[in-house]
Amino acid sequence: MTKRKLAITELGLRDGHQSLLATRMRLDDMLPICEKLDAVGFWSIEAWGGATFDTCLRYLKEGPWVRLRELNAVLPNTPIQMLLRGQNLLGYRHYADDVVKKFVDMACANGVDVFRTFDAMNDLRNVRVALQQVKENGRHAEGAICYTISPVHNLEYFVDMARGLEDMGCDTLAIKDMAGLLTPKSARELVKALKKAVSMPLHLHSHATAGLAEMVQWEAVKAGCDIIDTAISPLAGGTSHPPTETMVAAFSGTQYDTGLNLEALQDIAAYFREVRKKYKRFESDFTGVDTRVQTNQIPGGMISNLANQLKEQGALDRMDEVLDEVPLVRADFGYPPLVTPTSQIVGTQAVLNVISGKKYKVITNETKMYLAGKYGKALGEINEDVRKLALGDEEVVDVRPADLLDDELDALTREVGDKAKSVEDVLSYAMFPAIALEYFDEREKGVFNPEPLDEPEAEAPAAASAMQLAPTEFNVVIHGEQYHIKIEGTGHKSEDIRPYYVKVDNVLEEVMVETLTEVVPTLDGRGIDAKKASKGSKRPKATSDNHVTTPMPGRIVAINVKEGQTVEAGDIVLVVEAMKMENPVHAPVSGTVKAVYAAVGDNVNPDECLMEIA
User: Fold this and answer.
1) Whether 424 contacts 57, CB under 8 Å
2) Residues whose CB is less than 8 angstroms from the CB of residue 55 and which lie 6 or more positions away in sequence, other chains included
3) Which helix (H) or strand (E) holds 130?
4) Alpha-carbon gap, residue 197 to 291, rounded angstroms
């Protein structure tokens, strides 16, 4: 019997916690175990890329480049692997080639050894520049096929794509089964077909959402797969991946024996069992085994993201409606694989279709870009009625989207100015301008405000006890009109502001409550006011057709007009970021901008008047 050692990539530091804990694991909880991880003998450790870059800046207030450098320093013997979205890099749009090249250069300089590079559309034009730059830097280029199921995807298509990636000089080929759609039979057939067509080693990445991943990996390895992705057991299973220890034990004593030490893995697992407890507030009811993935094709990470989006909108009870809507939107969009950023685009549009009460009533900028071909070519036919509704007479792109982009690195450098202290800062700004600037500002002040780990209720027990005395359902009378109010829930507190989800006459609203008093407990348990403050006036309520408002709670990222400017009905006057997507807000009427009641960076809510047009 010929020995063929199986190699393993460990995912605990990236996709494990991204799939189960909303990507919230902090660097401080990674560093103490890295020496033991480094000694195991993994083929690679995936520790960067994917959603980690965004989350570091947005929620954790960690420098993503700092994270990479520190991990590189404590993992000297094991290659660090990252997930790169080709021309999207780690953002949600395509970037000019000079930005892509510089990003790869800096990722290499800061410690990335293996680049798993994919395109959400499986459009090979969108990975060519990134893969070439990886090879220019002498690093390992792994091309990835995004595996999916649809009326237009078949075995021949995936084989042709593999040949294209080999022609680009890839060192290995990854099967990226982001939704866990592979079955043992389909995995065996796919691996055999790919091994016959290309000479590159095969690397399998399959989520455990459907409960099939261990069997899928077993059959894939027997069929010729060379490397598998696993996650240490406390960060495995459900929407994550097969447990590392399980797969090491499964192949032990066979011709595929990994040679990894199970006892060493148990020590690492014990560490992460304790670490996971710290992130309890980010656990979700939607990250366990869910066999519905076989019919709705929704990846595990996307399910947890949808749950967070709905929670932010106070509509978590509508998850089943959204899960039903996602396949319908995907069909309208020509059956793209559901992986970042197309999973966010399709998923967010499905959420908007459900919570707005009408399909495509609100269409994000990213949806418009997708339908215009600015993310690449869809394999299936796009619903022309939907495209017309979104784009009007706008021309659809049929070339490589980045061919339409001029070099932008110099312009971005000038734009961010001295707020950026390095090339890495400019690249952070390129991908997430608003949150990068917020991070730079906090860094300059030397005071970061990361999202708290504790449950919101645990942040202020005195206030909570006082709140227990307050009603959660009541009637109020304002100017002679009665309204029925029911408090449905609350989001996490940021400094003195906390979102409350309130039903007003059975219509769900998000209310941003700014604390003007601090509750201090007294002997009778009622509490007293220990903080007196006076804040600015509230925005006026949108009451007429010439008032501009947002269709959903979000944060203003752009205001396109000024007071005194003439606008036409339908012009985009501002942009609100909600659910990580940019939502253009249009002028409801033609006229002159009389007043602007909001600024970039403001959190805004439906029914607030953000701008008045006379």
Assistant:
1) no
2) 22, 23, 24
3) helix 128-136
4) 31
Please give the backbone phi and psi of residue 602, each rounded to the nearest 5 degrees, phi first: -70, 140
Any idea of the CA torsion for 187, 190, 195, 198, to the nearest 10 degrees? -140
The C-alpha torsion from 231 through 235 and 237 to 242, rounded to 10°, is 10
Nearest-CA neighbor of 204 among 43, 13, 14? 43
More confident residue, 504 or 496: 504
Those residues with Cβ within 8 angstroms of residue 251's Cβ, 6 or more apart along the chain or in another chain = 6, 221, 257, 258
Direct distance between the N- and C-terminal alpha carbons of the chain, in angstroms, rounded to an integer: 83
Burial bucket for residue 566 (CB in 10 Å: 0-12, 13-18, 19+): exposed
What letter represents residue 364's amino acid?
Answer: T
Do the beta carbons of residue 311 and residue 303 sit within 8 Å?
A: no
Helix, strand, coil % (nearest 5) of the chain? 40, 20, 40
Q: What is the residue whose two structure tokens read 């992986």? A: 339
CA distance 599 to 614: 19
DSSP states along 162-201: HHHHHHTT-SEEEEEETT----HHHHHHHHHHHHHH--SP
Q: Smallest Cα–Cα separation from 341: which of 309, 381, 301?
A: 301
Which DSSP letter does residue 562 get?
A: -
Q: What residues contact 561, with CB distance under 8 A and at least 6 apart? A: 567, 571, 573, 574, 593, 596, 611
State the sign of the Cα–Cα–Cα–Cα dihedral 420, 426, 429, 435.
negative
pLDDT per position as a tens digit, 185-204: 999 999 999 999 999 999 99
d(CA 18, CA 55): 10
> What is the sign of the dihedral through the CA atoms of 307, 310, 316 and 318?
negative
CA distance 324 to 288: 18
The Cβ of residue 464 has, within 10 Å, a number of other Cβ atoms equal to 13
- The rounded distance, in Å, linking the Cα atoms of 240 and 257 is 23
Residue with tokens 């405000």: 449
Give me the numbers of helices (H) and strands (E) for the chain, helices first please.
Answer: 21, 22
- Cα angle for residues 370, 416, 49 (degrees, 5° grid): 50
Which helix (DSSP H) or strand (DSSP E) does residue 48 occupy? Answer: strand 44-49
Query: Can you tell me the distance from the alpha carbon of 550 to that of 606, in angstroms, rounded to the nearest whole number?
Result: 5
d(CA 585, CA 315): 22
Q: Residue 50: which pLDDT band, with cuts at 50, 70 and 90?
A: very high
Longest dimension (CA), the chain: 87
pTM: 0.79
Distances (CA, A) of 310 to 201, 225, 347: 40, 38, 11
pLDDT at 532 over 50: no
Do 65 and 32 meet the contact criterion of CB atoms below 8 Å apart?
A: no
Asked whether the beta carbons of 391 and 369 are under 8 A apart, the reply is no
Distance of alpha carbon 573 from the chain centroid: 26
Distance CA 226, CA 232 (A): 19
- On the question of pLDDT at 340 being above 90, the answer is no
